[in-house]
Amino acid sequence: MLAVRKARRKLRMGTICSPNPSGTKTSSEVCNADWMASLPPHLHNLPLSNLAIPGSHDSFSYWVDEKSPVGPDQTQAIKRLARISLVKKLMKKWSVTQNLTFREQLEAGIRYFDLRVSSKPGDADQEIYFIHGLFGIKVWDGLMEIDSFLTQHPQEIIFLDFNHFYAMDETHHKCLVLRIQEAFGNKLCPACSVESLTLRTLWENNCQVLIFYHCPFYKQYPFLWPGKKIPAPWANTTSVRKLILFLETTLSERAPRGSFHVSQAILTPRVKTIARGLVGGLKNTLVHRNLPAILDWVKTQKPGAMGVNIITSDFVDLVDFAATVIKLNDLLLEDTALAKC
Question: Which SMART domains does this one have (predicted)?
Fold first, then answer.
């Protein structure tokens, strides 16, 4: 019976994002745009903190602007060097951590987004931009792209984690929060008990968006969740072995209640890493060769109160990352079946 349920779920999740004339499915066309809606009913009442949810690291950095000033997240030394045009071209190779746009990530199944934002020097209109060394697109444009997807997929739930703020005063924060309200309106989920948050309760209340705001400003708005509710321990290593050890250790220390948990399955370049692979960039120097080993670790995990919850990766399209994480939820279904025996 369990095998039949799995087969049916695979059929439901095999959505064609952009069908080709021949009617055949290619790997780039099969997406997970409605994977949450397609989960078996037994999982609808589980807390979201118990589900396996794929996420992306520096989610917005599929495009950065080499013509804009270097961001305030960089040192003065880097800013001076960046006056040379070639330096910005090299910075771009190390600032970009994704290939897919927000829409494409959502269609692939990504539901957690790691967001860093900043005002831009010289801008008088209080506009806020995504940032990772170089400035990305306007936050407003990204929010509208996400909202468009959610309107078309009303049972999909997303996590927007605003965890780094640069060159932002109270006016900038108010402007950003107003943009968030304008973009999502009634889709915003008020902060509440983590354990009470299930797919069913969110669907019943027509909520689709959880906003985490790592700044005391969150206290002024009921729909902003405090950053402490979504810890994301960072290994800060170039070694896959050390990364996996860190992920295992932090999972074993995970609080059983009261928060979500992000496993950052990412490698972080050192200065010497960048120096050695200056022209190759992050993808070719560090990610491409190590991602398969990281994915092998993901395949061995199990979701649940003390298991994995949200897992993030760089370049989520290079391997079958999102589908692998989503498939881990089948293990929860097996637990339910065993409990009935």
Answer: PLCXc (SM00148)
Going by C-alpha positions, the residue among 237, 319, 318, 238 that lies closest to residue 285 is 238
Mean pLDDT of 288-294: 96
Of the residues 44, 132, 214, 288, only one is catalytic, namely 132
132 is catalytic: yes
Give the pLDDT band (50/70/90) at residue 278: confident
* Residue position matching structure tokens 């979500």: 260
| Known catalytic membership, residue 214 | no
What are residue 138's phi and psi, to 5 degrees?
-65, 140
Residue with tokens 């407003």: 140
Residue 323 has pLDDT above 90, yes or no: yes
**Residue 33 and residue 156 in contact, taking contact as beta carbons nearer than 8 Å:** yes
Q: Give one DSSP letter per residue of 189-215, joined into a string.
A: PPP--GGG-BHHHHHHTT--EEEEE-S
Q: How far apart (Å, rounded) are the C-alpha atoms in residues 79 and 83?
A: 7
Q: Which of 42, 44, 57, 172 is catalytic?
A: 57
Q: What backbone phi and psi angles, to 5 degrees, belong to 93?
A: -65, -25
Which of 332, 325, 138, 111 shows the shortest CA–CA distance to 208?
111
Structure tokens at 96: 């970009």
Residue 114 clears pLDDT 90, i.e. is over it:
yes
**What separation in angstroms does the CA of 60 have from each of 7, 97, 199, 313?**
34, 8, 26, 13
Q: Phi and psi (nearest 5°) for 163?
A: -115, -10
Find, among 65, 197, 67, the residue nearest to 132 by Cα: 65
Eight-state DSSP code of residue 227: G
Arithmetic mean of pLDDT over the chain: 89
Alpha-carbon gap, residue 179 to 175, rounded angstroms: 6
What is the rounded average pLDDT of the residues 303-324?
97
3-state helix, strand, coil in the chain (%, to 5): 45, 15, 40
Mean pLDDT of 38-59: 97
pTM tops 0.85, yes or no = yes
How many CA atoms within 13 Å lie on the side-chain side of 78? 15
CA 59 to chain centre: 6
